TrEMBL record:
The keyword Disulfide bond does not apply. Binds 4 FAD per tetramer. Each FAD binding site is formed by three monomers. The gene is thyX. Keywords: FAD, Flavoprotein, Methyltransferase, NADP, Nucleotide biosynthesis, Transferase. This is Flavin-dependent thymidylate synthase. DUMP binds at Q109, W110, I111, R112, E120, Y121, S122, A123, R124, R196, R223.
């Protein structure tokens, strides 16, 4: 069950309540407020609160830069200018607070984005639910032969079946022992803060995560990338859809210049100029390392 009955009742009450406000309101985000977006087998993302919209970014930029923005004809143009030139502060004027349910191993990746306020479900005080992430058959893959931190070919049927059986058996057994260790029926029972150490990394946790739009863009840029681990990428994809409805001008600029754009080194710019001038440039004459040249050719090779 993604939500407890108590959480469902709280959400229903919140969605039925309407209050007048003088704050900027993003109609697209209003539709997401308290709506549960399922992720993986037991996870979810829910928007708890937000502050600001596209106009908040523009307002902050015009206060900061004043007459320097007079040449920009409209709000969308200004936002694209800010993204294009790597300005960050105006995007910090928008904030979002999320309720996220996710496997512990995904949470440990996620928490590396330290530019947020986080309050996680505490297994010192509460008992974790018997919920584990068990990958879908097609998500099981061997280690990549070329990438030390990535996946390669999908496992064959027999190998996948064996792995799935182990994952289910191990998760069930460790939770049985966890439950037995903290039991109060006829035994003293181990403290919850100690019993939790026996749980596997695929058990689910929950947290509230609050961050600003600038840092959220950084999260999405890294975690929605095709090279990111699938289990965190699906969360980033959901957040991208939410942000698109929240700040459509900012999202479009972010897609164009960050997700769909490319960064070139000074050597890369020089090689392109030489090629446009008709020169044949090789890795040996480019001044680039083999790794740099391989990535450059992957995009610009002819």
């Amino acid at each position: 069950m993604p939500l407890t009955p108590e959480q469902e009742a709280e959400i229903a009450a919140l969605r039925e309540t309407s209050r007048p406000t003088l704050r900027p309101v993003a109609e697209g985000m209003e539709r997401h407020l308290h709506l549960v977006h399922p992720v993986l087998d037991h996870g979810f993302v829910r928007v708890v609160d937000y502050m600001g919209d596209d106009s908040s970014i523009v307002q902050a930029a015009r206060v900061s830069y004043g007459r320097g923005t007079k040449s920009v004809q409209n709000d969308e143009g200004l936002i694209r200018y800010l993204i294009r030139h790597w300005h960050s502060t105006p995007f910090e004027m928008c904030e979002i607070k999320l309720h996220v349910k996710l496997p512990v191993f995904v949470a440990r990746q996620w928490i590396r984005h330290r530019t947020a306020s986080v309050n996680e479900y505490s297994a010192r005080y509460s008992i974790l639910d018997r919920e584990f992430y068990i990958p879908a058959r097609e998500a099981l893959a061997a280690q990549s032969a070329v990438n030390n931190q990535g996946r390669g070919e999908t496992l064959g049927d027999d190998e996948a079946a064996r792995v799935l059986d182990w994952l289910r058996e191990d998760a069930t057994q460790t939770y049985d022992h966890y439950e037995a260790m903290i039991s109060q029926e006829g035994q003293q029972g181990l403290a919850r803060e100690l019993a939790r150490m026996n749980l596997p990394m695929n058990v689910y946790t929950q947290w509230y995560w609050k961050t600003n739009l600038h840092n959220l863009f950084n999260f999405i840029r890294l975690r929605a990338d095709a090279h990111a681990q699938y289990e965190i990428r699906v969360y980033a994809d959901v957040l991208g859809a939410v942000v698109k409805d929240w700040v459509p001008f900012a999202w479009q600029a972010f897609e164009d210049f960050r997700m769909g754009g490319l960064s070139l080194s000074a050597k890369g710019v020089e090689v392109l100029k030489r090629r446009l001038a008709g020169e044949v440039v090789t890795q040996e004459t480019s001044g680039m390392s083999k790794g740099e040249w391989r990535e450059f050719e992957g995009v610009w090779g002819v």
